[in-house]
Amino acid sequence: MATPVMEKSDQAPEPGFADSPYITVTFRVRRFNPEVAAEATWEDFQLEIDPKERVLDALHKIKWELDGSLTFRRSCAHGICGSDAMRINGKNRLACKTLIKDLSPEKPITVEPIKGLTVLKDLVVDMEPFFQAYRDVMPFLITKDTNEPTRERLQTAEDRERFDDTTKCILCAACTSSCPVFWNDGQYFGPAAIVNAHRFIFDSRDEAGEQRLEILNDRDGVWRCRTTFNCTDACPRGIEVTKAIAEVKRALITRRF
Ligand code: SF4
Ligand code: FES
């Protein structure tokens, strides 16, 4: 298939701006449309683009100006909603937080869907197994007190600090879909579910830690983790995912949390 190219004249800087920041970049995008073909293929798009822009900006340009059928998820465009995790140059990242200049743009930049989840179309995967694992760990505060509290549930700054890191999760799935155990066995809860279980297991106000630990003691639970650190490397929020998993493993052995 001929490479769609955005003409330089479309994007050229205003006259008088001799130091154009624009460079030509090839985006090699994994395309899949089950209504057209059974197999995914690569398609190249060339853009004249400022390398200080983000991969999400490039995908928007492709969609709006070259091929409106290109399909991907995004919402906030600012690293908050977690909807645009994708494999960029072979690494899981958020497209909205990845600058083109940081990707060696003199070579084609590859953009693919995250791995381990069924691809629905182009860069969009079926997130349901991921969210089912999240729901399975009961990601909400549980107390045994049947009466509505008359005041807020207090905790010390130290107690709050205990699970601060895992509150930062935006459920982007970059960790889970970078995990080789998850690729090989879609039954594994995966790092993101464990991170979100950790967030409540170590919350002094919560009273269902034992239940969550038993859920993760399952054959598809924390013991599947092989400590490859892929998850920690992939997390766009800088969460120490492997450390959180290790803390859950330790809590399962000691029953102290
Ligand atoms: S732990 Fe990090 S990589 Fe995993 S889902 Fe949460 S934010 Fe995304
Ligand atoms: S679009 Fe929301 S995190 Fe990137």
UniProtKB/TrEMBL annotation:
Catalysed transformations (reactions): a quinone + succinate = fumarate + a quinol
Cofactor note: Binds 1 [2Fe-2S] cluster. Binds 1 [3Fe-4S] cluster.
Cofactor(s) listed: [2Fe-2S] cluster; [3Fe-4S] cluster; [4Fe-4S] cluster
Pfam families registered for this protein in UniProt: Fer2_3, Fer4_10
Pathway(s) served: Carbohydrate metabolism; tricarboxylic acid cycle
Assigned keywords, A-Z: 2Fe-2S, 3Fe-4S, 4Fe-4S, Iron, Iron-sulfur, Metal-binding, Oxidoreductase, Tricarboxylic acid cycle
MF-aspect GO terms: 2 iron, 2 sulfur cluster binding; 3 iron, 4 sulfur cluster binding; 4 iron, 4 sulfur cluster binding; electron transfer activity; metal ion binding; succinate dehydrogenase (quinone) activity
EC number(s) stated in the UniProt entry for this protein: 1.3.5.1
Domain 2Fe-2S ferredoxin-type: 23-117
Residue ranges of every copy of the 4Fe-4S ferredoxin-type domain listed in the record: 159-181
InterPro entries in UniProt: 2Fe-2S_ferredoxin-like_sf, 2Fe-2S_ferredoxin-type, 4Fe4S_Fe-S-bd, 4Fe4S_Fe_S_CS, Beta-grasp_dom_sf, Helical_ferredxn, SDH/FRD_Iron-Sulfur, Succ_DH/fum_Rdtase_Fe-S
A Gene Ontology biological process term: aerobic respiration
PROSITE patterns linked to this entry: 2FE2S_FER_2 (PS51085), 4FE4S_FER_1 (PS00198), 4FE4S_FER_2 (PS51379)
Family statement: Belongs to the succinate dehydrogenase/fumarate reductase iron-sulfur protein family.
Name of the protein described by the UniProt record: Succinate dehydrogenase iron-sulfur subunit
Annotated source species: Streptomyces coelicolor (strain ATCC BAA-471 / A3(2) / M145)
Gene designation per UniProt: dhsB
